Amino acid sequence: MVDRRILWTSLGGLACIVAACTSPPVPSEPAPAPTHGAAGIGDEYYPEAGNGGYDVDRYELDVRYDPERGQLTGEATVTARATQRLSRLNLDLRGFTVSSVEVDGAIADFAREGGSELVVTPPESLDEGSVFATRVRYEGKPVAAKAGQLGGNGWYRTPSGGAFVFGEPQSASFWYPVNEHPRDKAAFSLTATVPKGWTAVSIGKSGKSTTKEGWTTTTWTEPDPVASYLTVFAVDRFDVETSELADGTPVRNVFAPGADDARDEAARTAEIVEYLESRFGDYPASTAGGIYLDSATGFALETQGTPTYPSGPDVDLLVHEIAHQWYGNSVSVHSWADICLNECFASYATWLWAEDKHGADLDSFYRERVETMHADLWAEPLYDMGAGNEFGAVYVKGPLAVHALRMRIGDESFDELLRRWPAEHANGNASWEEFEDFAERVSGQDLDEFFQAWFRDTERPADEHLHPARPRR
């Protein structure tokens, strides 16, 4: 024990010495001048997609849609954190008349630029690191779907008079103001009001519906961060079936008029989820199920938790879209050049299903596909394929490349890779280069030449990469 008198005497003397030797305070560096947030997040393929200067935490939407008039009225609150000192910021929004914008409750100036930029100037600059809320009120008839690589991106009308909005790589900006790039994932909630007799559906868990004065309101909440193109809004005279997975995760299958032929496939949702868990690990989404349409969109989309399907889906399509909940949704691309991380592995999931459920010999199937592959597909790279070409080869050449990787590193390392990749990047983003490094760490192999041959080159891989010998155990 130390004598307190000695301690206080020592401290007193020390205080005198410190006081005598203390230098005048150094002036702090002035804060940087506020600057405009960039009108793009920095994706080379889509320079105007997304925006810079902030990171969104959550979207809170309140929309009313009248199918008869085709009119949507919305109020969106976007809560974000400034990543620089901001004098103004951009949101992505296509069409609509914006009536007002507020930042932290104060009226803000706004302007429209180009076809999709909403430029917001708050009354005072926003400090770096500050959390702020931007509220946008808007209304109008949504812009009709635009032709894309897979099909239309944007707003569709249905044969029964309803509507839905989805698409990839952009679709959210067709119905709400958004930082439209998968790199900026955020929580999502929706309060949707539609005329009585119609049903609105979206992603996340649904709350109780209430009807008042001829209008029905339903809430939807997705707490996990979601890439904006994975949100969906659909209105129709849906028939809704609900159940649960074994762990209590809610399952919601909704069927548009005319989509009854999808019921048998939808009934296998829990079976498919359980199977994919055996390959990829625990199911990562807060809900399961699907939205089954009677519309020929040309493609399905892995909207979060509840994929959206066109008319006549088969089981393989369900396997593909549900596999995206791990590969594409929980782990999202850093840039659109990385799309093979989503599509190559979701496509290979149908191979795994065929192998484990139907006894398919994948090595034989692989050899047959390799020998019949058209030269045009060999010429398309699977990584950094160029803007507008993201979906050219990933569905056919992609699963071949994944199977070749499986043969190269062996089943044990491959199975480990399939589970660890989504677990270690859950609710985040990753790039193709990160995946290559990860595969080398898991396998303990140098895979540079293999990845170059299969994913970057524009010709048929050499035999050593096309038919790699499996590692000996």
UniProtKB/TrEMBL annotation:
Domain of life: Bacteria
Cofactor: Zn(2+)
Enzyme Commission number: 3.4.11.2
Entry keywords, A to Z: Aminopeptidase, Hydrolase, Metal-binding, Metalloprotease, Protease, Zinc
Gene3D superfamilies reported in the protein's UniProt record: Neutral Protease Domain 2, tricorn interacting facor f3 domain
Any GO MF annotation of the entry: alanyl aminopeptidase activity
InterPro entries xrefs: Aminopeptidase_N-like_N, Aminopeptidase_N-like_N_sf, Peptidase_M1, Peptidase_M1_aminopeptidases, Peptidase_M1_dom, Peptidase_M4/M1_CTD_sf
Reaction equation(s) it catalyzes: Release of an N-terminal amino acid, Xaa-|-Yaa- from a peptide, amide or arylamide. Xaa is preferably Ala, but may be most amino acids including Pro (slow action). When a terminal hydrophobic residue is followed by a prolyl residue, the two may be released as an intact Xaa-Pro dipeptide
BP GO annotations: proteolysis
Aminopeptidase N-like N-terminal domain location: 57-230
Name the UniProt record assigns to this protein: Aminopeptidase N
Organism of origin: Saccharomonospora xinjiangensis XJ-54
Lineage, highest ranks first: Bacteria, Bacillati, Actinomycetota, Actinomycetes, Pseudonocardiales
